Structure formats: C-alpha cells, structure tokens
Amino acid sequence: MVGLKEELLKSIWHAFTALDLDRSGKVLSHNLCTVLNVPHDPVALEEHFRDDDEGPVSNQGYMPYLNKFILEKVQGNFDKVEFNRMCWTLCAKKNLSKSPLLISDEDAFKVWVIFNFLSEDKYPLIIVPEEIEYLLKKITEAMGAGWQQEQFDHYKIALNTSREGLSAWELIDLIGSGQFSKGMDRQTVSMAISEVFNELILDILKQGYMLKKGHKRKNWMERWFVLKPNIISYYVSEDLKEKKGDIILDGNCCVEALPDKDGKKCLFLIKCLDKTFEISASDKKKKQEWIQAIQSTVSLLRAGSAPPHKEARQKRKELRQKLQAEQEELERQMRELQAANENKQKELETVRKQLEAAAARAAEEEKKRLQTQVELQDRFSLELEREKMVRQKMEEQVAQKSSELEQYLQRVRELEEMYKQLQEALEDEKQARQDEETVRKLQARLLEEETAKRAELEKWHLQQQQTIQMTEAEKQELENQRMMKEQALQVAMEQLKQLELERKEALEQYEEVKKKLETAANNTKSWKDKVAHHEGLIRLIEPGSKNPHLITNWGPAAFTEAELEQRQRSWKGKKATSE
C-alpha cells in the first residue's frame, strides 16, 4: 500500500499545485473520492473546507487531510487510467505548452503518466537523465528506428550543466518536439507511446490476435489476447470493450508447443490447475514470442519477482541511490580529508613556529653561553693578572723591606755587637710578625677564593645536572656546552688544587715564620738578660711610653705605637737620603 500511495501522490501533486485550494480544494477532494472509490461524507467535506480560517485545512494544510480521509481508505479497486486522467484534466490546461506539438493530447497524457512512474520520489517531481534515456530508447525501439546515442549524449551534457532533470511538461515538450523521432510520422510516434504506456503503466507484457479453441463447442475463434504479470485476458477485439475470459497464471502453470493438427498450425498449450487452453498463433515467430513471454511471466511468478519493467526501474533507482550514496560518501571523505589536511597544515605551522621559537631560544642561549664564557675567561684573566700583580707587589715589598733592613743593619753595625745582635733579633721578630700577618691575610684571601671557587663549582655542577635532565631533543644541542663547562670545571678544579697547594705552602711558611718568631723572641729575651747582666746596655733602649702597649695576636708588642711611628719616619728619611 505504501508503493500505491506514492504513485497516487505524484499524480495528485500535479493537480494540487495547479489548483487554488481555497476555491477548488473541495472539487479535488470530491473527484479523488469518486475515482478512488473512497466513501465520503458531504457534510464532513464541507466542514473541512469552510470559508473561514478555523477549518482544519486552513490550520493544518491539505496533506494531513488527504492522507487521513482519502489515501488511507484506498483499497486498490479503482481504475488507474481514470484516476490519472482526472488529475491530468485538472493540471494540463495550466501547464501544457501552448506551442504546437507533434503528439496529440492523448499521447501527452500518456507521457505525463509515464513521467509519474519514472520520476524520482522527491518534490518537485523531476525525471533524471538516466530515466529520460530509458524512455526515449523504449519509444525509439517501439518505432523500429535506431537509437542515436551520440545525439542524446550531447543533450545530456547540456542538461547536466543547467539542472538535475526535467519536469513532466518539459518531458512532453521534448518528445513532442520530435528531436529524437525525426523522420517518423505522428501515427508511428503515437503507436510507440501507446506501446510503452501499455507496458509500463498498464503492465501489458504482450498483446495481439490469436485463435483459441473453445472448451464446449471445440470450435476455433479469433480473440484479442492481453498478457499481464499474473493473467491473460482475451477480448472479442482490440478495443477491449467485450471481455470473453481470463487465464489466471501462477507458478504451477506451464506452456508447451503442440504439433499441427486439425488443419491448425503454430499451436501451443497453456496448462493451469483447473483448465487447459489450446491456442494457435498466426505464424511461428508469433508462436515463439508468446511462448517465451508466458514462460517468463510464470518464472517471475514462481520467483515472486515484480514485472521486468518495474524490477528494472527499481534496480536503476537502487543503482542511482548507491551511486549517490557513494558520491556523498566520497564527498564526505573528501571533506574529512580536507579538514584533516587543514588541521595538519595548522599543526605543521604550529610546529614550524615552535621550531623557530626553539631555534631563537637556542641561539639566544648560545649567545648568552658564549657571553658567559667570555666573561668567565675575562674574569679568570683579571684574577690571574691581579694575582701576578699582588705577588709582584709582595715581592717588591719584600725586596724593599729587605733593602730597608739591610740599610738599617748597615747603620747599626757601628753599635756594639751585642746591641747589633739585640737589634737584629728585634728586627727578626718584627719581620716575622709582618710575615705572619701577610701570610694570614694571604691565607684568608686564599680561603675566600677557595670558597668562591667551590660555590662556582657547585653552581656549575648544578647547571650540569639541570642540563642532564633536559629533553632528549635538547641534549644533543647542549652537549658541546656541557663539554665546555666540564673543561671549565676541570680548569677550575686544577686552579682549586693549585690554591690548595698555595694554602698549604702558606701554612708551612706560617709555621716556619712562627718558629722563627718564637726563636727570635727567645733570642731577644736571652740577649736582653745578657745585656742587662753584663754590660748594662739596657739603658740604650729608652723607656717606653706609659700609654697602653700595642696588643698583637701573640700578646703585648715589644714597642709602642709612638716608637713604631718614629722608626718608620726614621726609615723613610734614611731611604730618601740614600736615594
């Protein structure tokens, strides 16, 4: 019933779109109920088509009413040709072309019905180029003419560039223009359209005159036979006005060829469950065509298949749907691929930007590293120069002190030997104390440098650990930095070891100076005692100031601050005189 409803809707759609529903809706509904043999209530019909805006048609549209009150009540016991002719009458006058056509109105009606059968199941109705080609081929074959494939291909290309297909009225104009039936008269074209109409719409698979043997009188009478998918009807003549009987076909029927007998030729037999029919064709060709047609029909009934033209139409539709689905799937895949490609392009652009940023960062880090390395080298160079200068200065100071000491000793050699020994002891003590202080300062400075070097070493070690924890991609890039830092670390370690050695040497010097100081102190005390005891030279040293004595790391100093300043002034004066 769903397929029947779709077929009815196509014809009704033409009538529906051609009419003004506010004025002619009741006429269309009444005519549909009449031709479809649907009982209707005139009072309910008037209620549904009231002139005010409160009626169901005004509020809900015409289709709900059509489905509920007409199409759902259709039983199939109606004349399809009469139904189509009613819809054709309502829409043809408004839509049919006014230009003269090579086909009659009756032929245009048949083309219109065929259009409804072959058109797509979507609105507005159109017939696609594949179905147009199928219909034109059928008409051309029925006319006995050759099919012009090249001509249709040109027409199809021009059609596809502008639209998806043709409407019913454009199809009528195409066939009525004679573009694909040149050289054929109107009668031939009309007969071809009728033959195609009989096959596609009326399901007439074959028809023609043959002789049939009667069951009672056993006489032979000429009848007009019409083969349909499940029945063979025979009439008195081809006008189909007086039917004489039917041969019901099913899967148990069979057809057999018979030998000539009783003066009749081209005989064949149709066997059914309850009856057997003997038929005589006009010639052997007609006999064979009828046998093959009936056998094909019985085979379709056994298989439960639809008539050939309907099955072929369904296959073409399924093929188009499959191709359309494949096309849509292909378009969907293309869209997905395009979207994926765009996403990949965006990702690649993002990665490129990230790589550029990473390269810029790496270049900046390399620049900073080189700058740091240069700064470290400069710092090491400055420290080395500073150490050299300090050492040179210290050596100069030592040389100067030695020179001053020699000058002082030269001047006091005139004194007594004991006094000279005592003075030498005092100078040794002073020099030892100065050396001790210098060594202590040097040791403190070395300790500070060692602490700074250790902190710097720890910093480099921490940087090296952080560098090791970096990603694998940056590891290779920073390998050279690590090697250079390791070399710098090794240099620093060596410097640290050198500083350790210098510190140890300073400690040893400090111990030696300390021992010398102790020896000098003992000698000084011993010489003081000797001078005081034997020669009374203790008076050579002036009494010291009563001010508090200088306090050193080893106790009270041997002389006051005033005496030290006086001696320094004396040394400076002697040095200036000698220079």
UniProtKB/TrEMBL annotation:
<dbReference type="InterPro" id="IPR011993">
    <property type="entry name" value="PH-like_dom_sf"/>
</dbReference>
<dbReference type="GO" id="GO:0005886">
    <property type="term" value="C:plasma membrane"/>
</dbReference>
<dbReference type="InterPro" id="IPR057836">
    <property type="entry name" value="EF-hand_SWAP70_N"/>
</dbReference>
<dbReference type="Pfam" id="PF25530">
    <property type="entry name" value="EF-hand_SWAP70_N"/>
</dbReference>
<keyword id="KW-0597">Phosphoprotein</keyword>
<keyword id="KW-0472">Membrane</keyword>
<dbReference type="Pfam" id="PF00169">
    <property type="entry name" value="PH"/>
</dbReference>
<comment type="function">
    <text>Phosphatidylinositol 3,4,5-trisphosphate-dependent guanine nucleotide exchange factor (GEF) which, independently of RAS, transduces signals from tyrosine kinase receptors to RAC. It also mediates signaling of membrane ruffling. Regulates the actin cytoskeleton as an effector or adapter protein in response to agonist stimulated phosphatidylinositol (3,4)-bisphosphate production and cell protrusion.</text>
</comment>
<dbReference type="InterPro" id="IPR057837">
    <property type="entry name" value="PH_SWAP70"/>
</dbReference>
<dbReference type="GO" id="GO:0003677">
    <property type="term" value="F:DNA binding"/>
</dbReference>
<feature type="domain" description="PH">
    <location>
        <begin position="203"/>
        <end position="299"/>
    </location>
</feature>
<comment type="subunit">
    <text>The SWAP complex consists of NPM1, NCL, PARP1 and SWAP70.</text>
</comment>
<dbReference type="InterPro" id="IPR001849">
    <property type="entry name" value="PH_domain"/>
</dbReference>
<protein>
    <recommendedName>
        <fullName>Switch-associated protein 70</fullName>
    </recommendedName>
</protein>
<keyword id="KW-0238">DNA-binding</keyword>
<keyword id="KW-0539">Nucleus</keyword>
<dbReference type="GO" id="GO:0030027">
    <property type="term" value="C:lamellipodium"/>
</dbReference>
<feature type="coiled-coil region">
    <location>
        <begin position="309"/>
        <end position="530"/>
    </location>
</feature>
<keyword id="KW-0175">Coiled coil</keyword>
<dbReference type="GO" id="GO:0005634">
    <property type="term" value="C:nucleus"/>
</dbReference>
<keyword id="KW-0963">Cytoplasm</keyword>
<keyword id="KW-1003">Cell membrane</keyword>
<keyword id="KW-0966">Cell projection</keyword>
<dbReference type="GO" id="GO:0005737">
    <property type="term" value="C:cytoplasm"/>
</dbReference>
